[in-house]
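Contributing new records

If you add data, match the layout below exactly. Sequence lines come first and carry their own label; structure lines follow with theirs. Keep one chain per record. Anything else will be rejected by the validation script.
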Amino acid sequence: MTWTSAFGKGSGWLLQKIVNGLALTRISPNALTFIGLLINIVAALFFGFARLRNADRMFLYAGLIIIGAGIFDMVDGRVARQTNQVSVFGAFFDSVIDRYSDVVIFFGLLVFYARGNRLFYVGLVAFVMTASLMVSYTRARAEALIGNCKVGFMERPERIVCVILGALGNHWGVMAAALWVLAFFSTTTVIHRIRYTYLETERRKLTPTS
């Protein structure tokens, strides 16, 4: 169990109250997923429009907004199950929107560093964005072949927590540290999944699929 999943279990009572309220409205879980994306876009705008003189305040706002978006990310699946609206398309839609949410947040950071002419961090954010997408892609592609590939540490919840901590602690340089952590552990997770999939496919001698 990861520490983010442990936190999720610990806050389950409050989440369930939120889910109960949303279930009464009969709102579509897909709508909740999309609302989460819209909130992340707002956070990205705070990152992108920040300047050096107000970056700490703007990053603080962005971090708090991402926390709000995370609530929607945590409850959409629960609402789907509680209101009997679980569907294959819903799971697909949630996965696609999650990728957009990841990209838009990092794109906001990329714009911030580009406007400040901090080209090294532009490259670092671009690398983190790519590595984050590859974490998700390697799992999806591996599971099409071997059925299960959840190895590696840096899943999406861990990435979001890193970004939130970086945003809230930007005054103390935490965002720069968070980007390095994301770059390292995302890359490590991708390598771990490649190795795991290689060993599993060799063991099973699977026929490749298109």
